[in-house]
Amino acid sequence: NESLPSPYFFVHMAKTGGTTMMNLLKASTSYPVVSHFWYPPTEEVAKQTVRSLDLNQVNVIGGHMCWGTHRWWNEPPLKDYTYFTVLREPIDRVVSHYRYHLQPEDPNHWR
Question: Which Gene3D superfamilies does this entry report, sorted A to Z (predicted)?
Fold first, then answer.
């Protein structure tokens, strides 16, 4: 029984191509990928969500999360893990983010 490699945590920063990255990960690996861990209402809800994942079944966890998510696994504690992210030129990113929030389809629309 081959074990999965240590988990990868993809920190998706808004408007940096994170959705494309998650789609590429899903298409290019035979291991399961958990897509988009969204901003939870509280840290406790975030911890419960993370702890509900079975790391024997999942290799990549990605979404809007902070570094340190790996610490929320208690049993057994994660000792081997990798974080990665995608960056974008800052001014282009801010302009893109602003224009995105002007769209009525955006759940955080603030026009």
Answer: P-loop containing nucleotide triphosphate hydrolases
Residue 21 in any domain: the answer is yes
d(CA 71, CA 75): 10
Decide if 18 contacts 86 (C-beta within 8 A): yes
Per-10-residue mean pLDDT of the chain, 111 residues long, equals: 71 90 87 69 77 80 84 75 94 92 71 48
Total count of domains within the chain: 1
User: Does 1 map to a domain?
Assistant: no
Scan for tokens 């494309």, then name that residue.
Answer: 20
Q: What is the pTM of this model?
A: 0.78
Distances (CA, A) of 65 to 28, 76, 102: 22, 21, 24
